[in-house]
């Protein structure tokens, strides 16, 4: 399968990332997704403080940023995303 086709499949997943502008972990997580050609919906909780409670509820009480969701499933923060990538599981989750 060529890169273009793979990229098209990968971008079918719905990826959401809650962030803050000054957050280095957010930058790293977004960079990894961007490097894979994944488009994602970013919710800046500094710009939209009313979305913070929503994030914490969806993330089972976790209040740090980033909080990442793939197809509605809570992945966790930057460390969790990187661990999935290191373990070779991330691409499959993004393609599902
Ligand atoms: N281990 C976490 C660390 C995340 C973290 O410490 N984020 C900082 C911002 S860079 C944070 O949310 N601090 C608390 C806050 O800003 O309310 C991860 O990998 O996502």
Describe this structure in words.
This protein is an alpha+beta fold and 96 residues long. The chain has one domain: Glutaredoxin (3-Layer(aba) Sandwich), CATH 3.40.30. The protein has five helices and four strands; from the N terminus they run αβαβαββαα. It has a four-stranded mixed sheet. β1, α2 and β2 form a beta-alpha-beta unit. α2 runs parallel beside α4. The longest helix has 12 residues. It is globular, with a radius of gyration of 13 Å. The mean pLDDT is 91. The structure holds glutathione.
Q: Which stretches of 5+ consecutive residues score pLDDT under 50? A: none
Bound molecules: glutathione
Broad structural category: alpha+beta
Spatial gap, N to C terminus: 16 Å
How many strands in all?
Answer: 4
Tell me the count of domains.
1
With helices defined by DSSP (H or I, 4 residues minimum), what is the helix count? Answer: 5
* Dominant shape: globular
Q: What letter string, H or E per element, gives the SSE order?
A: HEHEHEEHH
CATH fold call:
Glutaredoxin
Report the biggest beta sheet as strand number plus sense, adding barrel if it closes. 4 strands, mixed
- Could you tell me the strand content as a percent range? 15-25%
CATH class: Alpha Beta
Which percent range fits the helix content?
40-55%
Rounded to an integer in angstroms, the radius of gyration calculated over CA atoms is 13 Å
Order of strands across the main sheet? 2-1-3-4
Query: If classified by CATH, what would the architecture be?
Result: 3-Layer(aba) Sandwich
Mean pLDDT: 91
- Report the CATH superfamily: Glutaredoxin
């Amino acid at each position: 399968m060529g890169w273009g086709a793979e990229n098209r499949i990968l971008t079918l997943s719905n990826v959401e990332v809650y962030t803050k502008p000054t957050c280095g972990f957010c930058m790293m997580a977004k960079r990894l997704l961007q490097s894979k050609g994944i488009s994602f919906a970013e919710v800046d909780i500094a710009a939209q403080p009313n979305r913070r409670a929503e994030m914490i509820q969806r993330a089972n009480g976790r209040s740090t940023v980033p909080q990442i969701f793939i197809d509605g499933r809570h992945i966790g923060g930057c460390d969790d995303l990187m661990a999935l990538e290191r373990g070779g599981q991330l691409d499959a989750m993004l393609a599902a």
